Amino acid sequence: MHDHPTSLDQYEWPTCITPRCGRQLWVAEAGRYACRPCEDATARRLRDLPGLFRQLDTTAMLMRGARRPGGATSGSKTPPIPPRLEVLALVGPGGIAARLSAIEDAWRAALGWTVAPWRGNPTQAVPHLVGFLGNNLLWACSSYESVGQDIDDLCKLHSECAALASGEKRPGRVQIGACPTVVGDGWCGTQLTASTGSHRVHCGGCGGRWETLGEWRELRAAQDAVTVEQATQTGAAA
Ligand SMILES: [Zn+2]
Ligand SMILES: [Zn+2]
Q1: Ion ligand 1 neighbours, Cβ < 5 Å
Q2: Segment 167-220, tens digit of pLDDT
Q3: What pTM, to 2 d.p., does this model score?
Q4: Of 123, 137, 184, 215, which has the fewest beta carbons less than 10 angstroms from its beta carbon?
Q5: Range of the domain at 188
Q6: Cα of 103 from ligand 1 centre, angstroms
């Protein structure tokens, strides 16, 4: 009597390698490491990343304020939005670009390709990195044994970015000072708020709107001008 290694009791149907997926692979997927739904979801997340990066990068610019590098400036020292370290870290040199780049390097090594060319700063690099990973995703899901971990990392990266970009995480809205719009012979003065999830500031008092970095700078400059003028008037009245 001898065992039949091919007996159905002992045969384990292959499953997707992605952590927390574990779907049984279809016959048409035989030989793959990751299932097709995991591949599709990852492709969608990759497509989202450049847009999320741009949104967070704009937020980061607003957080850093309108200051020119190098100090001596006539502008305000207060950034329009209080800095959030998670946002600055994600768009900085160790953030989204570095995490995508680590995956590209690993895939290139597995493919036996040369190392990736220098892709520039994170703003320049992210679209190229996403392009490389998207173009080679089918290969990775089919033939790269560590793809499960990479799919999981991309999923985490995407949800971190999406949560910050949507302003889901606190502190959400923050006070950014009074509305400087001239109304009659004074100023509107309504308290303005901003959120890390939207680049639009809307005044509920006078209907004023500011949304681009240039407009944010104008808003900040106008607020500073009002402060100076109010101080002057107070001085003159005293
Ligand atoms: Zn899967
Ligand atoms: Zn207003």
Answers
A1: 16, 18, 21, 23, 35, 38
A2: 665 555 667 888 999 988 888 999 888 776 666 788 999 999 988 778 888 888
A3: 0.67
A4: 184
A5: 171-238
A6: 18
